[in-house]
Amino acid sequence: MHIATRVKRYLAAKGVSFQTLQIRRDVPFLAAIKQIGIQPQQLALPSMYRMNQQLLMVVRGADQVVSQTQLGKLLGHPVTPLTVSVVNKIFADCEPGATPALSEPYRLRCVIDSQLLCANKVYFVAGCSSFLIGVAVDEFKFLNPHALFVSFPDTAIEEEDQQQSSAANKPLISHTCCYSDASMSQGGNGLIDWPQQNELVAELLTEKSDDTAFVISQLKNAPGIKKHLIQYVSTLSRHSDVLGATEDFHDLETVIQSLTPRIAANLAIGILILQQLRTPLRGVVGKSAWWRVALYSSRLAQKIAAECDQLQDKQHTAHLLGLIHQMGILAIGHFYPPEFVLLNKMANANPREPVRNLASKLVRLGQANSVLRMGYPALGACLLLKWGWPSHLCESIGAHLQPVDVIKDDKMALLLSLVNCLLSEYQIGYRTTGASSEHYCKALTIPKQLVQQLANETLCEYQCLSQINHSLVA
């Protein structure tokens, strides 16, 4: 089904000619449309709200952001986003997440971003996320005869809206990460059971985590985290020159000062996420193996960022994303334990096959189909978006296994891709990609020889990780 039944009948009744375009589903949505020559400002994205007990469709360009508060002020009435289940019932003839930017076939009130009228054509999903249809601007206006065309304010999203922002309003969620009602509603495997982000994580993500006193105050009442960090630093200091081997790491303040507050906060965030996701500990891609790879990745990402002119000011961000960028693997284990058990067996039997390829073979297993088809990087990005993490970080995580030409403008995604290539080349943990690191080195303008040297240093520094790994995640 390329076009929803109601949309198809409506287009036929109006006699409007349109163009049908197929897009790739194995790359981020916005990257996929750019590959076929469509600019974000030409793409109409609908969001659904309730206003005065009436249903309202708001259509904006993919490059336009409007907050719930701004929208309420613009319309003179407060608006409330509809839940995913309600939206799916309204658009029952559409694939979940592929809502058409047409209100008339569904008898809805409609507000449209007038900036969509600046281009010659408007494109929108019409029931299937693999296909777009394109119509002339005049035809788009003709298809929405009762719509109110408005100019959305070019202002930043207000602070309260950053916390309230619905996942359905974000392109990464509504198009790349769609899932069915069945997978949301049945049993413990449904994605309706999103785990809530730990409150301590939210505190450690703020800029205050640069302050030693603040980090100490946050972690001193988290005895599990404190114990893990002390053991982590003590073990590393005995096996490498990264930290002062003469230090006595028995108190939290010494640990945080030796690591730096931000790195200590990042590690605490990683441990808290591990504890929150109910994923099996053992196995090739179990929690224990995942955490070992995460620690290598974070240190290596930080080292490379320090040597890369384009990323020198983002070393702490590189460390954090290196630590948690593969959390989609843990999310599979959390949401779909049976499929995760099979993934572990497949990874054990096929050590040279990238985990992403193995995970794609799980797509046809029952209710996991609509979630797993988007891949574990996007699943991890979806979970972080649900927790309110900055969208640009989530996009880098969701795209980190894409080809260079797809993510060439996202330096952090390129860095994560490079780290994954090096981990696979050096056979550290499970294999994540079969791509070559050379292309990503060129994209980041960093010598491959230097990158290999940093990878060797990291490998030597972290040989002891297997000794502390189990206790960190148990």
From TrEMBL:
Q: Which Pfam families match?
A: HDOD (PF08668), tRNA_edit (PF04073)
Domain spans labelled HDOD: 191-403
Q: Which domain of life is it from?
A: Bacteria
PROSITE patterns in UniProt? HDOD
Per its record, how is this protein called by name? Answer: HDOD domain-containing protein
Q: What is the organism of origin for this protein?
A: Spartinivicinus poritis
